[in-house]
Amino acid sequence: MRVLLLSDIHANLEALEACLAVAPKCDSIVNLGDIVGYGASPNEVTERSQRLGGLVVRGNHDKACSGLTDPKDFNPLAGLAVLWTRDHLTPENANWLRLLPQGPVQIDGLPDVQFVHGSPLDEDEYVVTEADASQPLLTTPVPVTFFGHTHIQGVVKSRPGGNDFLRPEYRTVGQREHCEFALEQGSSYLVNPGSVGQPRDGDWRAAFAVFDSSARAVTLYRVPYNLKGAQDRIVAANLPRRLANRLAAGR
Ligand code: ZN
Question: How many independent structural domains does the chain possess?
Fold first, then answer.
C-alpha cells in the first residue's frame, strides 16, 4: 500500500496544490493536522482536505482555530493568526475541524504504523531533538509513527543506546527533489514528512512524503510552489506581514 502523507498545511493553498500536482498515485492519504493557522486560505485548504478524504488527525492549530482550545499558550504571532482564522472560517469548516480525531490513529491494513500530529505519547508534544524521540521510541508498541508539528522533515531511527536523526540531503535549493529512506525490520521509527505550507527547516519548498508499505520505504519530497501568490494573499488578508516574509526563508 502506498500512503500519501501531508502535514502542517497551515492554510497555504498554493503549497498544497503544488504538492498534489506532483505526488505519485497513492492508495490512501493521511493528513497529520494543522490544516489551518498562519496562512490566508483556511476555508479553501479545509475544503480541499475534505475532498481529498482519507484519514485526518487534528493539530494544535486546528483545535485553537475551531475554538476547542484557547490560544493563550501560543506565541503572539501564532495567537494573532488563530484569532484571524476564527474570524474567517465558515461555521461548517470550523465544525469539521472541531470533530477531527486525536492521534495516534491507525488505518486498516497497516498494523505496524500509526499517525499523530505531535508525539505518539501526547498529540501536542514536540519531537525536535534526538532526546525528545527517546521516550516515544522506547514506549510506543507500534514500530513506525508518522508525525508532524515541528515542521522539520526527517526520520528518527532507534538503535541500541540512542537514536539517529536522519535529515534528507538535497542537491538544490529550488528544484523539485526527493530522497528515499528504507525502514529496516526490527528498528522503530518516527517519520516527519515536513510541513506542506509552513516549512521551518530552512528550506522554503513545500514538503510531503510517500510511504510504501510493501517496500518498507519512505520517500521525502520538496516541491517549489507559488510562494509570491501565498505571500500576497497573506498581505491582502491583513495578517501580520512577518507570516508572509518567513515563508521565503523556510523559518
Ligand atoms: Zn504546525
Answer: 1
Q: How far is the CA of 128 from the centre of ligand 1 (A)?
A: 13
Question: pLDDT tens digits, residue range 81-93?
Answer: 999 999 999 999 9
**CATH number assigned to the domain comprising residue 47:** 3.60.21.10
Distance from the CA of 36 to the center of ligand 1, in angstroms?
8
Mean pLDDT rounded to a whole number for the chain: 96
pTM > 0.90: yes
Length of the chain: 251
Q: Which domain holds residue 188?
A: 2-249
Alpha carbon separation from 14 to 7, 42, 69, 114, 145 (Å, rounded): 14, 12, 27, 28, 27
Ligand 1 centroid, distance to 22 Cα (angstroms): 22
Q: For residue 196, what is its C-alpha cell?
A: 506542506
Distance of CA 138 from the midpoint of ligand 1 (Å): 25
**Is residue 8 over pLDDT 90?**
yes
Q: From the CA atom positions of the chain, what is the Rg in Å?
A: 17
Tell which residue, 154, 164, 105, has the closest CA to residue 134: 164
How far away, in angstroms, is 38 Cα from ligand 1 center? 9
Mean pLDDT for 132-138 is 90
**Span from the CA of 149 to the centroid of ligand 1 (angstroms):** 5
How much distance in Å is there from the Cα of 185 to the middle of ligand 1? 30
Quote the ligand 1 centre to 161 CA distance (angstroms): 30
E strand spans, the chain: 2-6, 28-31, 55-56, 113-115, 144-146, 154-159, 162-166, 177-182, 189-192, 206-212, 217-223
- Expressed in angstroms and rounded, the spacing between residue 10 Cα and the centre of ligand 1 is 7
